């Protein structure tokens, strides 16, 4: 039997994941195999409109063997004040969560959500990279693509053997603060990219945060522009649009943001997918920036 190559670091398609899961199943039924797994699938479905729906959908049916990650509980620390609607979890707490899911530095992780990865698969992908884990990828097309390919679902909760907390801590040099954004407001455009929908960026509507608009000087790159039918557009085609947005900045001088630091990770994934490495994330994003009435706001 041909062995599936793992080492996925940005995206993986449904056939690749299905083949790897089948090999893992065969390995674990072998009497010589241990209970440990080289592959962990994580379901990160979440809805801002109904924060309980992701867990309910997971219980009703998920990719076999997948554990569930809740955006509010596992991928954020909602007790933090002044850092937007989805503040980063503490590094130690996230390391313990990874241990609860049985994830070690040698585990290949695949994350998915309902469709395109923006809610909240890319957020977990980024947090894993932030703690030093590189073998993590988002499933192209998410659960919708898995089902469209005719693959079965599993219901109920999946219990996996826990391991020690992940041996790492967040590399906070990859996280940009509001003060750092403030210090760069006079820089030429191209260093800050906002992944929100155009009407929110322009300040025409604001369904979630206290004030409408955007950080002065930020350019708008709605995440939907990176997709075609719920999947990332071809890398060469996408790079031809993303690279000019940076103007004269190197990727590691650029910053992405959104409403609360979740869909910004999807834009970061697009940059990594096309080979533009090192873009940072303004984790507080618009909800954190706009929480301080002293900070400037632009519209239009």
The chain-level mean pLDDT equals 95
The level-1 CATH class of the largest domain:
Alpha Beta
Topology pattern, helix = H, strand = E: EHEHEHEHEHEHEHEEEHEHEH
Tell me which CATH architecture of the largest domain applies here.
3-Layer(aba) Sandwich
Number of domains: 2
CATH topology of the largest domain: Oxidized Rhodanese, domain 1
* Strand segment tally: 12
First-last Cα distance:
58 Å
The dominant shape is: globular
User: What percentage of amino acids are in beta strands?
Assistant: 5-15%
Poorly predicted residue ranges: 31-35
Q: What's the helix count? A: 10
Strand order of the largest sheet: 1-5-4-2-3
The CATH homology group name of the largest domain:
Rhodanese-like domain
Alpha-beta content class: alpha/beta
* Helix coverage percent: 25-40%
Largest sheet: 5 strands, parallel
Radius of gyration, in angstroms, nearest whole number? 19 Å
Describe this structure as you would to a colleague.
The protein has 300 residues and is α/β, with parallel strands linked by helices. It has 2 domains: 11-170, Oxidized Rhodanese, domain 1 (3-Layer(aba) Sandwich); 173-289, Rhodanese-like domain (Oxidized Rhodanese, domain 1), CATH 3.40.250.10. Helix content is 30%, strand content 12%. The protein is built from 10 helices and 12 strands. It has helices at residues 14-29, 53-60, 91-100, 121-130, 142-148, 178-183, 198-202, 235-245, 263-273, 285-289; strands at residues 11-12, 39-43, 67-68, 108-112, 136-139, 175-176, 192-194, 219-220, 227-228, 231-232, 255-257, 280-282. The strands form 3 sheets. A 5-stranded parallel β-sheet has the order 1-5-4-2-3. A 5-stranded parallel β-sheet has the order 6-12-11-7-8. Helix 4 (121-130) packs across helix 9 (263-273). The longest helix is centred in the N-terminal third of the chain and has 16 residues, at 14-29. The model is unreliable at 31-35 (pLDDT under 50).
